[in-house]
Structure formats: C-alpha cells, structure tokens
Amino acid sequence: MFTNVLRKGSIVLASTVLAFTLAACGNNGGSNTAGGNTAAGGNNTGTEQAADLKGEIRIDGSSTVFPITQAVAEEFMAVNNGVNVTVGEGGTSTGFKKIINGEIDIADASRHVKDEEVADLKAKNQEVVEMPIALDGITVVVNKENTWAKEITVDELKKIWQKDSTVKLWSDVRADWPKEPIKLYGPGTSSGTFEYFTEEINGKKNESRTDYTPSEDDNVLVTGVAGDKNAMGYFGFAYYEENQEKLTAVSIKADANAPAVAPSVDTIRDGSYKPLSRPIFIYPLKSALAKPEIAAFLKYYNSEEGQTLVEEVGYIKLPAEDYQKNLDQLK
C-alpha cells in the first residue's frame, strides 16, 4: 500500500489533494487501523479502527520531514477513511509561521522551535508539543563525475558556503582541485536544514553566501547536482539514499586531523558523522491533542507502524523510549 514518497517529482503538484483521493478509496472494513477515540491514552498500539473517526488534519513545514509524514498520512488515511490529512513542504520556518497563524495543526521541523516562535504562540494562548521522530544526517553531495572531492573538512565547507565567500573555482578550495567553477545548490532560507547547516558549518545561523540555487524541494537540488559535473549541494540523508546512483556523498572531516566519515545509518545513529547528524521533529498544537482524529494520527505516527515507515523512507528511527515519551504526552 505504501508508495515511495521520496519520488516527489511525480506527486508534488498533487500533494495537497492526495489526501482526499486516498481518503475516498481507503479500506472501509477490517480492524487494522490507528487509534480511534482511545488514541490519547491507554495501551492501544494503533491498530484498532474507530468507525466514527472523522475530521481534517493540516500539516506543513520541513521538506526533510515531509517523506515520513506523507508516508504516515497515506497509511493512516487508508484505514481511517473519514479523516483527510494534507501535508505540505513549505520549509520549517513556514510551518511554524502557519501554526502560529492557526493555519495548520502540526508543523514538521528539521530544527527545534525558536524562543521567538514560542513567544508568538504564547501571545495567541497557544503552545506546541515537541516530538522528535527520527534522526537525519545532512549530506553534502557532488556529481558522480567528480573524482576529486571525495572528502572535505568543515573548514573547507565553511570557506565555500560562508557569507561573502570568495570561492568561485574548485581550485580556490584546494590548489590541486580543478580550475573549474563550483555550481552550488542548497535549501532555501526558510528551511530548517539551511539553518542547521549554516550554524554548524558557518558558525552562525542563517549566514550563507547567496549566489547559489536554492529550493525547498530537495528533488530540485538532486536534479541540479546530478546534471552538472562541477556541482555541490546538501540536503537530508534520505534524499541521497534514494538517489545514490546519481550522486556521490562527500565524507566529512570535523577538522584537518580527524578521520573522514561518510554519512550512513550507523554513523548518523552513533553521532560519528559530525557535525551534521541531527534529530528531526513534529510539533502539534497542544490544544489540538484534544481532537480524536489528531490524537489518533499522532499515536499512529509514534507506533511500531510509524517507526517502520521512518526506516522505509530512509531515515533512522529513534530508541523506543523516545517514541514512548511522545505517546505519554498524549495522555
């Protein structure tokens, strides 16, 4: 039933209507579904259907978290055909703006909520609940024909990506690299991945050179790097895994004397892929937890079924106790 949602190029224009289509053709029978009216508490594992579960759940935010949330939404709606779940991918900051403005119920985020966003919510008598749902490693990628940039230091990445960078050619990074122009691709400024990368690599959040091709759609970045021998980009690990036949992941050296570490499930999980390993999140409105359909959806998201989907779309699931902590917040 679950389709590989990382292949967003074919569905992105329909992402806002997919929920309605799936809801219309979902399974009308059986008892294997998420939650129901008991989803906010108890020991329900997310596999009992509530026939009267109805409503709409609106989600937007991180393009990195999008594949997980979209996969969960597809499976949840297939067995809860009275619930419509729409999932956008406008970027983490956009997701928080929308939840502050009351436009959505859940924000996908590839960074922690900011103090000022918490304050804006409080001013409207609202708050969000932080739920970590997976681990990700921001992956620096180059074209398959790139035979020189197999590994790079954090300082060299900073030299390339910092504000007002003077790097124009690969040879500006290392003298023995080609005297060819670097074509750069990366997330847009509303992306949590952009914020995390700039803070960890450039030393200051949101400070970056601006002469690169930005996009909130990671498939645009994949296509750009795959189509240019001299290109470099960065995005979530799952998008690299989905496209590794087209791209090469660059191993990262925390400093000049450190070993070069490639992103992988193991190195992201154990934190040795640094400084670009990170948790990713969903943030439901606390007031929305009282709605049975939203409580059921969140319970399903954190259930064993949801954890399986985390891995199916290429991310690294958290320890079981982390999902249990999320579930405890629903009681």
Describe the protein's architecture and organization:
By secondary structure, this protein is an alpha/beta fold. It has two domains: 8-135 and 280-328, D-Maltodextrin-Binding Protein, domain 2 (3-Layer(aba) Sandwich), CATH 3.40.190.10; 139-275, 3-Layer(aba) Sandwich (D-Maltodextrin-Binding Protein, domain 2), CATH 3.40.190. Helix content is 33%, strand content 17%. Residues 1-19 form the signal peptide. This is Phosphate-binding protein.
Please describe the topology of this protein.
Elements: H1 15-25, E1 55-61, H2 66-79, E2 83-87, H3 92-100, E3 106-109, H4 115-123, E4 131-137, E5 139-143, E6 151-153, H5 154-161, E7 183-186, H6 192-202, E8 213-214, H7 218-226, E9 231-235, H8 237-242, E10 247-249, E11 251-253, H9 265-269, E12 277-284, H10 292-301, H11 304-312, H12 320-328
Parallel strand pairs: 1-2, 1-3, 6-11, 7-8, 7-9
Antiparallel strand pairs: 3-12, 4-12, 5-9, 5-10
Protein name: Phosphate-binding protein
Signal peptide: 1-19
Domain PBP: 47-305
Total E-strand runs: 12
Strand and helix order: HEHEHEHEEEHEHEHEHEEHEHHH
Our Rg estimate from Cα atoms comes to 20 Å
CATH fold-level name of the largest domain: D-Maltodextrin-Binding Protein, domain 2
CATH class of the largest domain: Alpha Beta
Helix content: 25-40%
Protein name: Phosphate-binding protein
Subcellular location: Cell membrane
Function: Part of the ABC transporter complex PstSACB involved in phosphate import.
Subunit structure: The complex is composed of two ATP-binding proteins (PstB), two transmembrane proteins (PstC and PstA) and a solute-binding protein (PstS).
